[in-house]
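Sequence design from tokenized structure. All designs in this work follow the same two-part layout: the structure record, then the generated sequence. An example of the structure record is given first.
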């Protein structure tokens, strides 16, 4: 089945799984069912463009396992999306939910499209048609969608509306990350970033690193990266000396004004032509000397070429799969220098608050912001303690520890049932 999933992210997820399966000494007969996705759906998404032509896009959804509840996972609108990338994201989501103790299997999905090239009306038609094609495969009790790269609250609202129109009544449980006015939860938009900042604070405390006055670099200034940059600069008094997005990277050793970045991105859509810092090459961004490095954009950016050159004390993996297996091997050797907060722990805040949103929607009973933030931090804390404790006891890297806890939990659930889920 390998060729079907051919993609760098899938091969990364697959090598990672093998490493954990070897470490946990999982029997060959259990490995395959634990690893392969339960279902993969590919759909054709024809969209009428504003000029009257019809464009056809490919859409995907992968549901990894059903042993712990419905599946849950983001929707990505990116120009290079493949079934393999989606399958990797679904698998990581399974591990992430298990690590955070959420009653979900992992899923992921999306459309291979550059949303920046579409008008708002085209984007709406694309989102609605994608959901229309997905209706037979998803549901509030079977597979729940959420936002990821290239999608946002507005896209979630269109997905929910299309599903609700099909049912004939409003069904908020079909998506999370929707606007608060239609049943979304307060705090969801910032949840991933808040969780990342919380864990950076915890890690800094553990290694006795003073954040105030220290330096940080953040790659990606979208939903996650912007919240992290704000949290590090204004909650912790750090200098954000480097930022970057798909349009370029910028540096200022005295600290970049994050409010200025925010308003520039709001006005222009991205960092292009930002004048508040010096333009540097994107390749140099991640290797800048800094206390905290946060990749919050695409996968595979820390790899064989640059892992040995990283000059940070804490690497907080806000993105999914930012470190390749080869990059990881180098980081394993540097465990004494760099405290890695692995992705399935680091960015779990998003799915944790998505879970809160789903529960609130099912009960039509809404919580206050402080209840949400408090429960989010408690969940992140439990996962952080479990990961760092096991890593210390067994003298293993944090990523191995996090994945081992998660894979063990999923395996246990699957063994209770036998072969089917
Ligand atoms: P987003 O679309 O809001 O923002 C993505 C950012 O990355 C943008 O600033 C974009 O310009 C930048 N980017 C894209 N390609 C780039 C490249 N090649 N080099 C540098 N920058 C690039 O997405 P997001 O929701 O903030 O997600 C960012 C990452 O966090 C993704 O890996 C996503 O899977 C992960 N994540 C997101 C959530 C969430 O709640 N949104 C939850 C968990 C994990």
């Amino acid at each position: 089945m390998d060729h079907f999933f051919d993609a760098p992210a899938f091969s990364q997820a697959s090598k990672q799984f093998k490493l954990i399966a070897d470490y946990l000494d999982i029997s060959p007969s259990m490995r395959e069912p634990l690893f392969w996705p339960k279902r993969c759906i590919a759909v054709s998404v024809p969209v009428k463009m504003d000029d009257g032509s019809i464009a056809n896009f490919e859409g995907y959804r992968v549901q990894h396992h059903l042993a712990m509840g419905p599946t849950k996972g983001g929707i990505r609108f990116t120009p290079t999306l493949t079934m393999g990338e989606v399958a990797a994201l679904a698998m990581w989501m399974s591990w992430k939910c298990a690590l955070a103790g959420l009653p979900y299997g992992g899923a992921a999905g999306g459309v291979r499209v550059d949303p920046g090239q579409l008008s708002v009306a085209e984007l709406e038609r694309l989102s609605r048609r994608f959901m229309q094609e997905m209706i037979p495969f998803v549901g509030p009790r079977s597979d729940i969608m959420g936002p990821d790269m290239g999608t946002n609250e507005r896209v979630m609202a269109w997905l929910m509306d299309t599903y609700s129109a099909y049912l004939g009544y409003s069904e908020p449980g079909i998506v999370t990350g929707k606007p608060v006015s239609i049943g979304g939860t307060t705090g969801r938009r910032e949840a991933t970033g808040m969780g990342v900042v919380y864990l950076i604070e915890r890690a800094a405390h553990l290694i006795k690193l003073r954040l105030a006055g220290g330096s940080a670099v953040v790659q990606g200034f979208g939903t996650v990266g912007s919240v992290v940059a704000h949290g590090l600069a204004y909650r912790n008094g750090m200098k954000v000396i480097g930022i970057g997005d798909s349009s370029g990277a910028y540096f200022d050793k005295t600290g970049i004004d994050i409010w200025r970045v925010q308003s520039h991105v709001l006005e222009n859509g991205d960092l292009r032509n930002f004048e508040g810092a010096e333009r540097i090459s994107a390749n140099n961004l991640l290797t800048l000397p800094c206390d905290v490095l946060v990749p919050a954009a695409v996968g595979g950016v820390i790899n064989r070429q640059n892992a040995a050159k990283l000059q940070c004390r804490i690497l907080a993996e806000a993105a999914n799969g930012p470190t390749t297996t080869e990059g990881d091997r180098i980081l394993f050797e540097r465990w004494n220098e760099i405290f890695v907060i692995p992705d399935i722990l680091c960015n779990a805040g998003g799915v944790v608050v998505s879970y809160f949103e789903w529960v609130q929607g099912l009960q039509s009973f809404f919580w206050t912001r402080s209840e949400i933030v408090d429960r989010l931090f408690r969940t992140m804390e439990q996962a952080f303690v479990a990961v760092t404790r096991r890593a210390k006891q067994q003298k293993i890297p944090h990523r191995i520890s996090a994945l081992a806890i998660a894979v063990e939990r999923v395996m246990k659930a699957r063994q209770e049932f036998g072969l089917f889920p």
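The chain has 14 helices and twelve strands. We note this feature because it recurs in several other targets discussed in the main text.
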